[in-house]
Amino acid sequence: MTQEVDLWLDDDTIVALSTPPGIGGLAVVRISGSRAVGLARTCVPGLPRSPSARRADFVELKIRDELLDRGLVTVFPAPASYTGEEVVEISLHGSPVLVDRLIAALCSAGARRAQPGEFTLRAFRNGRIDLLQAEAVNELIHARTLDGARMAISSMEGALTGRLQRLRTHLVELGAALETEIEFGEDQHIGNVVDPGRITSALKEIRLILERARFNEVLSNGLKVVIAGRVNAGKSTLFNSLLGHDRALVSSRPGTTRDFLTETIYIDGFPVDLTDVAGWDAGSRDELESQGIRRGVERLNSGDAVLFLVDASRPLSEADHEMDKLSVSHCRLVVATKMDQADPEVLKQIRRRYAGNYYCEVCALNEPDLPAVKDFLRSRIQGLTRRKNDFVVSARQRELLRDLEERLSRLCTGLEKQSYEVELLAEELRGAMDCIGRLTGGITSAEVLDAVFSRFCIGK
Ligand SMILES: Nc1nc2c(ncn2[C@@H]2O[C@H](COP(=O)(O)OP(=O)(O)O)[C@@H](O)[C@H]2O)c(=O)[nH]1
Ligand SMILES: [Mg+2]
Fold it and tell me: DSSP per residue over 180-242, as a string?
């Protein structure tokens, strides 16, 4: 863990390519640290003695008197830069050869190659942004949808930070009240000193954030849909039809698909991850298959919707009933398949049984577009994305928010009850403040920083 501590403490001037690696129209090389301008000058001899702030200058890039390229140099003096340090950005032609040469020259002059996320880590270290905002930067870069990007930007602007700061103010007030109580005995009810309603409303706020975190995930990462149904129900055929090409193996021999296949389709530009799962045959003793089933069930439970396929050409079986039970509590569309070979008796039975469900009948073999299935997915997307948020919540943040929620709810109960242990309440309160500190990065550790920043790209 010494490396993270170094990153946290060292004052090297760092350099990295900030645009994607490879051939492109332009490449931007970023340098940050107290020696940024000095080091840049070794490759930009024409850089003025006191360069103008945040204005691009057209210059010659030279390495040992040899012209490398012509490009633009912009100097961002400290502290009004992305990292809070002196920053220089050099944009040149997007040639990996030129970029490598430039970075190597800067390194031999004394710069160090930046670690993933190190520019943003420095912004955090120098108090330009908090940890919530740093994580939002990464969410923004990786957003798969425009809505995801919008939420990330607003998080970067401090939407979640603001909410948590308000909450923290309430908790500090409550802490002061509890201390008075501890010092001056038990004759007055704590509710007289602090308004428990404030904690209740803080609790509501946290619950709202948590509830919305789920929607956030869909908005940022797309809809996760699992195709379920007994072996040979036509899952892989439907999967291929929705994809528009043959991805999954289709066979009349049961149990052909032994693991997952996940592929993305776009509905109105919105990404939908479709998963075709291994043979769901409940009676199977085959080790590999039952493992596939277990993982399929996990997948089902963490997804946003289920397409539950029932074969209309064969009598309903025990496996159908089991799949029915597994999927009933999820948002699901029941799909009667193989309509070209439907058995009238079976179909009647299916229609009766699934009256009241979202339901459609298809022949995936000859029906390439499957509009009924797509309509269902479309309405699911609309349902989940109707409520827009102004922040993103990472897995790390969600865990801390859950912890915070539990503590606040214990605090609430404690405050409402007449008999309470003030010391215990104070303990919960400290825990809650800790959670907020960990969320924003006021309290942090090398492991957390490593976990957060190692997910970044180099150059950000
Ligand atoms: N007649 C007909 N056969 C189908 C249809 N859909 C799938 N099948 C056939 O049913 C068998 C099993 O299909 P498959 O997609 O592999 O089922 P899975 O085990 O649920 O993935 C294959 O022989 C398919 O060609 C359909 O709409 N009509
Ligand atoms: Mg299959």
Answer: HHHHH-SSS-HHHHS-HHHHHHHHHHHHHHHHHHHHHHHHHH-EEEEEEESTTSSHHHHHHHH
**pLDDT (tens digit, 9 = 90+) per residue, 254-305?**
555 556 788 999 998 889 999 988 656 545 545 555 666 777 788 888 889 9
pLDDT in tens, 22-69: 999 999 999 999 999 999 999 999 998 889 999 999 999 999 999 999
Q: Could you tell me if the CB of 257 is within 6 A of ligand 1?
A: yes
**12's tokens:** 């090297």
Domain range 146-215+394-441, its CATH number among 1.20.120.430, 3.90.1140.10, 3.40.50.11600, 3.40.50.2300: 1.20.120.430
**Which ligand 1 atom sits nearest the alpha carbon of residue 362?**
27
Tell the CATH superfamily of the 2-129 domain.
Answer: Probable tRNA modification gtpase trme; domain 1 (3.30.1360.120)
Percent of residues, the chain, with pLDDT higher than 90: 50
- With a 6 A CB cut-off, is 252 part of the ligand 1 pocket? yes
Q: What burial class does residue 38 get, using C-beta atoms within 10 Å of its C-beta: 0-12 exposed, 13-18 middle, 19+ buried?
A: middle
User: Identity (one letter) of the amino acid at 444?
Assistant: T
CA distance 233 to 449: 48
Q: Which residue has the higher pLDDT, 158 or 190?
A: 158
Q: Is the CB of 301 under 6 A from ligand 1?
A: no
| Every domain of the chain and the residues it spans | 2-129, 146-215+394-441, 222-385
For tokens 């880590």, what's the residue? 121
- Please report which ligand is nearest the Cα atom of 312: 1
Compute the distance from residue 336 Cα to the ligand 2 centre, in Å: 16
CATH assignment of 222-385, given 3.40.50.2300, 3.40.50.1370, 3.40.225.10, 3.40.50.300? Answer: 3.40.50.300
Ligand 2 centroid – CA 257 distance (Å): 4
Closest to 59 measured CA to CA, from 18, 88, 97: 88
The answer to whether the pTM exceeds 0.70 is no
